[in-house]
């Protein structure tokens, strides 16, 4: 019996060897494949964990950014309204002084300067803060996964982020001086007695923006954001100097300039929309056949719908004496929000904070500095 089995194995030994080699190879391949699969799964799980962690860290940075922006935007707005204080002129006008015409001329320039400075200052503040906080956020994320020690200390963070306070102070004052020159060139020639339309108001803002964009003496405010941030600061710390230089490179890039210019233009459009409501409110029907101003008006493409089956009134053709429009525009800036009203500084801050281009800019900067 044993000899029979031995003979059988001897006769088929080649087959057994081949079969064993095949199954052995298959086993090794399966073991190798399972090992690689486990490594891939572990790698993907680790990658997913890191992505989730990074996403949560970025979202935390974004919340901090929004809270900081809202806080500093209010401070900047108050600073601007304090420098360009129209209340003093209003109080003087109430006494009916002999130089009231001169006071009205000053007020005319001051009101438009206020609006333009708010637009540029809030836009610049939003961009610089998003750049700064996302650069810091990127460094902090790298520190959280790097065992070699922190690259940016708490003290360095404080020094770096305090640069924005220079913009709130001297930077805003410099911006006021530059914009006031452009406003005077556009607004001073317009008579207080002139009846103006919404299109003419829009043209004023467009002309002021064009003058600032092509300013060869002081430079375009959007392209010199770095000036308002660090021009008045002496930097002696080497690490801080590196951070500032990186920030300057980002702020001077074409992408950041484009986003800021887009934000400024959009803010001016928002201001014009608010002024358009003043023209609607000031519209007086020419005869009794027209419906009176009511809450059911619908404004579309510059037209005021007075009701179904009625004629449309083009708001762009409504004319208001410039001198009567000025107090109404000034009130748009200083409305008390606690009474349920909205004012231009708050509207612009909210719009800029929710701006998708701003958010995308911050996300891109965070991604770059968290991966270096």
Automatic annotation (TrEMBL):
The chain crosses the membrane at residues 16-33. InterPro entries: Peroxin-3 (IPR006966). Keywords: Membrane, Peroxisome biogenesis, Transmembrane, Transmembrane helix. GO terms for cellular component: peroxisomal membrane. Signal peptide: none annotated. GO terms for biological process: protein import into peroxisome membrane. GO terms for molecular function: protein-macromolecule adaptor activity. It holds the Pfam family Peroxin-3. It comes from the Eukaryota. Interacts with PEX19. Involved in peroxisome biosynthesis and integrity. Assembles membrane vesicles before the matrix proteins are translocated. As a docking factor for PEX19, is necessary for the import of peroxisomal membrane proteins in the peroxisomes. PANTHER family: PEROXISOMAL BIOGENESIS FACTOR 3. This is Peroxisomal biogenesis factor 3.
